[in-house]
Write a structure and sequence with these properties.
binds flavin mononucleotide; 4-stranded antiparallel sheet; alpha+beta; 5 helices; single chain; 16% strand; NADH Oxidase; 173 residues
Length: 173
């Protein structure tokens, strides 16, 4: 089977990560794959903010939990790396471009045996004052919003491999 196709069909979201860090060269490869994503009119509007420091991840987790009134909000499933994808708020294709970046990174990660999962909650609270002040402290421009993040790390345990996805192709006879 073609390696690229195999990589696509075997990628799964990981929701339990081991503590082991992602080596810098592999992380760099994952981020570069994100930067090579397609974007509307080749705008490349994104900024990829990489958060690895456990205390910074925890402060962000706490702020999200508070903003969304979800006291038990998980710490990005224990992932050692969170990549916050942001785009200018007034850019029309931000959601689509963000999705392309994230999927490129997920596939690049999977090719290196690194697990990943989309983290969606910043979409609903990136302008909450406490969350925003943390994003600002991370160097994210005030006029950027977040439509999705990626959590990355080595899976702790097995990842499900099967997925039913039938009846989703409509060939016009
Ligand atoms: C727009 C979007 C938002 C998502 N948000 C989350 C999330 O916040 N937390 C999570 O655990 N998974 C999230 N996911 C992952 C999906 O649940 C997952 O991709 C789906 O269940 C299919 O499983 P698979 O990725 O293993 O193929 C999100 C996926 C997408 C595309």
């Amino acid at each position: 089977m073609n390696e690229v196709f195999y990589n696509i069909i075997t990628r799964r979201s990981v929701r339990k990560f081991a503590d082991s860090p992602v080596p810098d060269d592999i992380l760099e490869e994952i981020l570069t794959a994100g930067l090579y994503a397609p974007s509307a009119m080749n705008t490349q509007p994104w900024l990829l903010t990489v958060v690895r420091h456990p205390e910074k991840l925890e402060s962000l987790r706490k702020a999200i939990a508070k903003a969304l009134d979800r006291p038990d909000y998980h710490k990005f499933y224990g992932a050692p790396v969170l990549v916050i994808v942001t785009v200018p708020a007034d850019y029309r294709h931000g959601i689509a471009d963000t999705a392309c970046v994230l999927e490129n990174m997920f596939l690049a990660a999977h090719a290196e045996n690194v697990g990943s999962v989309w983290i969606n909650q910043l979409k609903d609270c990136c302008n909450d004052p406490e969350v925003r002040s943390i994003l600002t402290s991370f160097g994210i421009p005030e006029d950027h919003v977040c439509y999705g993040c990626g959590a990355f790390g080595y899976a702790d345990g097995d990842i499900p491999t099967d997925r039913v996805n039938k009846g989703k192709i409509n060939y016009v006879p």
